[in-house]
Amino acid sequence: MVISNAQILAHLGDTGRVAGTLNPTAQSILFGDVADDAIDRDLPWITQVDRAHLVMMAETGLLPVAQVSPLLRRIDEMEGSGFAVLRGRSAPRGVYLLYETYLIADLGEEIGGVLQTARSRNDLGATVLRLRLRNVVSDLLTSLSRLQTTLLRRAAACTDAVFPIYTHYQPAQPVTLAHYYAGVAAALDRDAESLQAVLADLDRCPLGAGAVGGTGLPIDTRRTAALLGFSAPWTHSIDAVASRDAVLRLLAALGILGVTLSRLAHDLQLWTTGEFGFLTVADDLVGTSSMMPQKRNVYMLEHVKGLAAAPMGALTSAAMAMHATPFSNSIAVGTEGVKPVWSAASGMLDALTLVRLIVAGAEPNQGAMRLRAVSGQTNATALADWLVREHGMPFRRAHHEVGDIIRSMTVQGVVDLETAAREARPEWFRGTRSPVLRPVDIAAAQEHGGGPGRASTASEIERVRASLRSRRGALMEQRRRWRQARRSLRAAVDGVLGIAVLDRTSRGRYSQA
User: Fold this and answer.
1) Is 279 helix (H, G, I), strand (E, B) or coil?
2) Residue of higher predicted confidence among 125 and 32
3) Residue 513 pLDDT > 50, yes or no?
4) DSSP state, residue 14
5) Where does the signal peptide begin and end (predicted)?
6) At a CB cut-off of 8 Å and minimum separation 6, what does 389 contact?
7) What is the rounded CA–CA span in Å between residue 134 and residue 48?
8) Residue 133 and residue 273: Cα distance in Å, rounded?
9) I need a surface site. Which of 164, 365, 416, 506 has the fewest CB within 10 A?
């Protein structure tokens, strides 16, 4: 049976309280001219919720199988065709009502009209949002895990790559690239914890809250929650449909993650310049100039910075849309406040991938790194510490004495601090153990305070790896539970359809008798 647009509009044009469809200009702004984008975005999730709801209604006896089974069968057919019967149509009151109206026109009101029994678009929309978001967060956690794994792998390969870490853009102390990469991986671990907390918050199902005040029908919300892969139903109807704070928490977590990524991208961009020359990025990760033949532009890192900044803007936009609205169902909260999250999350996935490719493809230039560690006098603090340890000199005095030598070196154009110190203060070196002043040896000896020493760095790498293993295991279990829920839902649908077939067969035999 072919349902015409006129039939759809006739159903939508008279809802009882409201006659006529939405103003065409308003419809175009709010829902678009055709529903295809919304069909792709929302209907696969809506039909998943519909199946769980209809199965529960049949199992509890709130709806007879004879009404539920034709709906389930038609929903299967529509989804199997990619919702072809709805494509190219306008959705004058949104994609859900287009879909429901089509079912009513196709199956009749006695069957199609029962779909929203004990349910509203409000709890449906809140449930669909959480189904979509948990997949997004799962993908973000996976991508973040891959970046951390790459950082730790590169850390293990760069234990001898000594270079100066900078403070205030000035060379500070010698560390290893392994130590730096492990530190970034550790910072990202806290970002992963924040995303994991968002995923845990998404594990409650709002279905059953209705429009805002629940329902008087004895529905089984635990059953629908389980069929949709949630651990539990929501326990308060107003909170269930009013709250979209999971969006804000996700954007806040992504905003902080973006700060971490932007700082990593900033360092990598500096260290790949000709002025630093600490890292060389593979040819397939750089661009050139359309005019200047010498250029090797690591421009992907500029994209990372831009993409990583977007969640903060999205958080501000979402929070302001939700700010000072009634604590109930609200379009400003549930629609406008949610809009910014999708592009922000998608951009963050891209940023994570791009920076991972750069980290994996950046090779250290150890000669340039070590030379700058020496020329930047990054061994100055080690010399001051040696004076404290070997000569009992107060640190502030040792700090002043070493600084005075470095000032003289700058005037004289001398680079090597140890040579200058032996010439300026020979008495320091008589009858005592020589200080360890090679940057590579200093870095290896700095084991305390989480320094760049080999044992300290190896311990931190293993700590973050253990955290990664635990988080991956939890995510795999979560995804396994979601897959199992989909299988259980499919089996439950097939069970209801099987009962319907048996009922029809039994009635046929009875009538023949």
Assistant:
1) strand
2) 125
3) no
4) B
5) none
6) none
7) 15
8) 39
9) 506
pTM of this prediction exceeds 0.85? yes
**What is the tens place of the pLDDT at every residue in 187-218?**
999 999 999 999 999 999 999 999 999 999 99
The long-range contacts involving 39-43, CB below 8 angstroms and separated by at least 24 positions, are 39/83, 39/86, 39/87, 39/95, 42/95, 42/96, 42/128, 43/79, 43/83, 43/86, 43/95, 43/99
Q: Give the integer Cα–Cα distance in Å for 85 and 105.
A: 12
Tell me 62's DSSP state.
S
What percent of the chain has a predicted confidence (pLDDT) above 90? 86
Cα dihedral 7→13→16→19 (10° resolution): -150
Nearest residue to 179 via CA among 369, 463, 453: 453
In 170-299, where does DSSP find H-type helix? 177-201, 221-227, 237-242, 245-271
Q: What is the pLDDT of residue 510?
A: 42
Contact at 8 Å (CB) between 120 and 328? no
pLDDT of 505: 59
Give the separation between CA 159 and CA 181, rounded to whole angstroms.
10
What tens digit of pLDDT does each residue of 271-295 get? Answer: 999 999 999 999 999 999 899 999 9
For the residues 465-480, what does the mean pLDDT come to? 97
- CA dist 240 and 329 (Å) reads 9
Q: Check if 375 is active-site.
A: no
- CATH number of the domain located at residue range(s) 5-117 in this protein: 1.10.275
Q: What are φ and ψ of residue 379, in 5° steps?
A: -90, 5
Q: What CA–CA distance (Å, rounded) separates 291 from 293?
A: 6
**DSSP letter (8 states) at residue 3:** P
Across the chain, what does the average pLDDT equal?
A: 93
User: Residue type for 509, please?
Assistant: R
What would the pLDDT profile of 364-390 be if each residue is shown by its tens digit? 999 999 999 999 999 999 999 999 999
Distances (CA, A) of 80 to 47, 65, 197, 483: 11, 22, 35, 19
The structural domains of the chain, with segments of one domain joined by +, span: 5-117, 122-370+453-496, 377-445
Specify the pLDDT at position 219: 98
Residue with tokens 């493809």: 361
**122-370+453-496: CATH architecture:** Up-down Bundle (1.20)
C-alpha distances out from residue 37 to 29, 43, 53, 100, 340, Å: 14, 10, 24, 17, 17
Looking at 168, 290, 448, 511, which residue is catalytic?
168
Catalytic residue among 28, 81, 231, 289: 289
Question: What does the DSSP 8-state code read for residue 449?
Answer: G
Specify whether 289 is catalytic: yes
Angle at 96 between CA 95 and CA 102, to 5 degrees: 90
SS3 call for 233: strand
Closest CA to 286 of 276, 278, 275, 297: 297
